Amino acid sequence: MISSKLEELDLNLLKLLRVVVETRNTSLAAEKLGISQTSVSRGLAKLREVFGDQLFIRKAHGVEPSELAERLAEASEQMLNPIMNVVDSYQRFNALEFEGQVTIALELSLLDIFGHGIHQALHKVLPKARLELVYWQEETLHQLLDRQIDYAVQFSLLPMPQEIYMHHLSDIKICLLARKEHPVLSHSSDWEAIHQLPLVLHKVNALNSKRQLIEEFYLDNGYKPNVCLVSHSTSALVHHLVNSDAIQFGSSYQRCQSEHLGCYSLPKIPSQYTSFSISGCYLQSKRGYPLNQLLHQSIQTFFDSVEQPEMR
What DSSP string runs through 113-174? Predict the structure, then answer.
């Protein structure tokens, strides 16, 4: 049956068929395709095996295509052109002229810290694109898998399905944050000294659990955390820190939010939690797509250029 043989048909044979129909001459077809006449003859023989012997009728100075051959040539053009257009779009991608939408999803705390810098980096390489920087929500992973989101920046510890490619972007060092000249931290940041201080927690969706990791540290050391504020909002946390004796386990990046915020040494915690890795994520199937390669390179270059503020 023809249908079963079509599954094994070489697409190059359809191109050969189309050129022979156009030239009506095997020698001219071979010259146009840059192959030998013997290769053309072998290709036509394979086409006859699939479609039957009546594709072409030999003439004195060439061949005459049958109606079936002409209709197959027309169908092959309709089928191959979209494929060639896709290949062409890969090869001729022009970032400076690209006017499409690019959506980047970031974990909310990372959006607060790095959103402005990432926007600047992407606007430089994609000046005409419509850029959307959104925060990671419950449906974001589904949207990433469904090609609605082009790229994501998340904490590396968030598990991702195998369809998502992840690459390391940066490590964020952790410190204690509190107002400058804090009455306790200015002298000591040992557990015995800090365990009764009010604690603010930055709610991170990637670490969503009944108890946050910081609270586990307190319990492991035999103390009950005195949590006074939990928020997604960096600015709300910083405002409370600089206007009270509260402390937060966070990053020195937050110091940029207020000149009245200081960084202090950590108490004793497991070494693997003194910093957190962040990763860039996008579909495995898009790893060869020029736009995603550009996003990958541009965002990685941005993070390579960022220096975390000193923790002093």
Answer: HHHHHHHHHHHHH-TTSEEEEEE--TTHHHHHHTTS-SEEEEETTS---TTEEEEEEEEEE-
